[in-house]
Amino acid sequence: IMSPQMCILLLCGAWVIGLIHAVVQLAFVVHLPFCGPNEIDSFYCDLPWFIKLSCTDTYIMEFMVTANSGFISMATFFFLLMSYIFILVTVWRRSSGGLSKAFSTLSAHITVVVLFFGPCIFIYVWPFPTVPVDKFLAILDFLITPILNPIIYTLRNKDMKMAMKRLSSQLLSLRMIS
User: Fold this and answer.
1) Which of 81, 105, 131, 141 could pair covalently with 119 via S-S, beta carbons 3.0-4.6 A apart?
2) Maximum CA extent, the chain
3) Quick one: which of 84, 78, 22 has its CA closest to 47?
């Protein structure tokens, strides 16, 4: 059980890290000269693509921005996974019966976290793909994940599970008759 102080500390930490990250990213580009084309061929209008529009050599800046964002994404992802492992170990030590329920709940959370962070991490590991991978990832990130999120949590509902079992048994019995 998390104390209110720990909750406030985590919340403030997330806000401070996010603010520092945004200010550092902005500091990288605020004085860049822009004179070329003003179109980005990407669904992600993200800073690495924006920096490419500059008239100067921006290799080091692109690397710094990509490394900064990649580090933040990877650190957040691993922090979430470690917290899930900590929760599972804590439940396992205290109650053997609660482990399956905790794992059921956390598996849905982990699925959503992987679906959210997977494309984000991939974009920063490979920031300038030669093929339109970012368009596929944008579809996955902005269309598939929001659709899957309610499905994942709905299928965990007991009434929904029973309705799905009845429906599948009815479909199987209709198939056997035909």
Assistant:
1) 141
2) 73
3) 22
Question: For every one of its 178 residues, what pLDDT tens digit does the chain have, with 9 covering 90 and above?
Answer: 678 999 899 899 989 988 998 888 888 788 888 876 777 776 666 777 778 788 888 888 888 887 888 788 888 888 888 888 888 788 778 776 667 777 777 777 777 778 777 777 777 666 565 556 767 777 777 777 777 767 777 766 777 778 878 888 888 887 777 6
Query: 47, 28 in Cβ contact below 8 A?
Result: yes
Q: How far apart are CA 86 and CA 92, in angstroms?
A: 10
CA distance 161 to 168: 11
CA distances from 150 to 22, 23, 92, 141, 144 (A): 30, 34, 28, 15, 11
- Assess contact for 33 and 56: CB atoms under 8 A: yes
Cβ contact 50:68 at 8 Å: no
Q: Tokens representing 168?
A: 């599948």
Q: 150, 143, 77: which is closest to 114 by C-alpha? A: 77
pTM of the complete model:
0.64
Angstrom distances, CA of residue 89 to CA of 7, 81, 102, 114: 20, 12, 10, 20
